[in-house]
Write a structure and sequence with these properties.
globular, mainly alpha, 7 helices
Length: 141
């Protein structure tokens, strides 16, 4: 029994060393997709329910408006799905391999914010994203 466990562990280590399972890439990609969609939905919903109240007496009304908003609920649901995809990815690969790819969510949200929300993105943020991309490229080697 112990020998079978050692062989199984050895096979897993060899598989990870020889190449990452394509399914892990799919789960990482789905994690990023659902994370980005969730962030964009939450931002879009925030236009509808307004800013967080400064007066605590308005907090209950704010929370009711927020948590009855379909876009917010869809955004939160996307976050739950992203978490499930992330758990699946981590079951197939090392976190030290998978986690740097989460930086792609930063890149995609920044790239989509001018398109979706007509935001002005300063060049310093684009420079930061370029640094993130360079880091992702280095980490994936």
């Amino acid at each position: 029994m112990l020998q079978a466990e050692n062989v199984n562990t050895k096979n897993k280590v060899e598989k990870r060393q020889n190449g990452i399972n394509m399914t892990a890439y799919i789960f990482i990609g789905l994690t990023i997709l659902f994370t980005v969609c969730g962030q964009l939905l939450v931002k879009s919903a925030s236009f509808e329910f307004g800013p967080f109240p400064k007066d605590l007496s308005m907090l209950i009304q704010f929370l009711i408006r927020a948590f009855t908003n379909v876009k917010l609920l869809a955004g939160l649901f996307s976050a739950v799905i992203a978490s499930i995809m992330w758990m699946s990815a981590l079951s197939l690969t090392d976190i030290s391999f998978a986690y740097p790819f989460m930086g792609l969510a930063i890149v995609l949200v920044l790239a989509l914010s001018p398109l979706v929300f007509k935001e002005i993105v300063p060049w310093t943020r684009w420079l930061g994203v370029a640094v993130v991309c360079l880091g992702l490229w280095i980490a994936s080697r």
